[in-house]
């Protein structure tokens, strides 16, 4: 099963990537910038695999650039306590 098929798996996957980036010295601001770039790619190039991803893609498609940055920042916050590296650290 692809990590994209299940919302909880997707959040855990993103949480692991976030914690790896932060442990490698990447700032939260840089992570948020990357989340914005990835969000645009996913919304425009990748078919949604579950209802939550569909909602995010729909929101992204009608959002201004500023709102897209806000969505990306919220996703970073959402997954900050997910993933195997984030368990028990917050």
Shape: globular
Strand proportion, as a percent range, falls in under 5%
Biggest beta-sheet profile: none
Helix count, per DSSP?
Answer: 4
Number of domains: 1
**Which structural class best describes the helix and strand composition?**
mainly alpha
- Calculate the terminal CA-CA distance, rounded to whole Å: 29 Å
Instruction: Please tell me the CATH architecture by its name.
Output: Orthogonal Bundle
Mean pLDDT: 85
Number-wise, the strands total 0
What's the SSE blueprint?
Elements (H helix, E strand, L loop, with lengths): L6 H17 L4 H18 L5 H12 L2 H15 L11
Pfam family, one: DUF3243
Protein name: DUF3243 family protein
InterPro entries: DUF3243 (IPR021637), Uncharacterised_YmfJ (IPR024702), YmfJ/YflH_sf (IPR038292)
Walkthrough of the structure:
This protein has one domain: Cytochrome Bc1 Complex, Chain D, domain 2 (Orthogonal Bundle). The chain is mainly α and 90 residues long. The relative contact order is 0.21. The chain is built from four helices and no strands.
């Amino acid at each position: 099963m692809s990590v994209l098929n299940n919302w909880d798996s997707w959040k855990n996957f993103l949480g692991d990537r976030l914690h790896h980036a932060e442990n490698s010295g990447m700032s939260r601001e840089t992570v948020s910038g990357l989340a914005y770039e990835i969000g645009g790619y996913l919304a425009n190039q990748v078919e949604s695999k579950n209802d939550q991803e569909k909602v995010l893609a729909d929101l992204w498609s009608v959002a201004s650039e500023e709102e897209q940055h806000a969505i990306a920042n919220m996703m970073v916050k959402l997954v900050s306590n997910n993933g195997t590296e984030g368990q028990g650290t917050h």
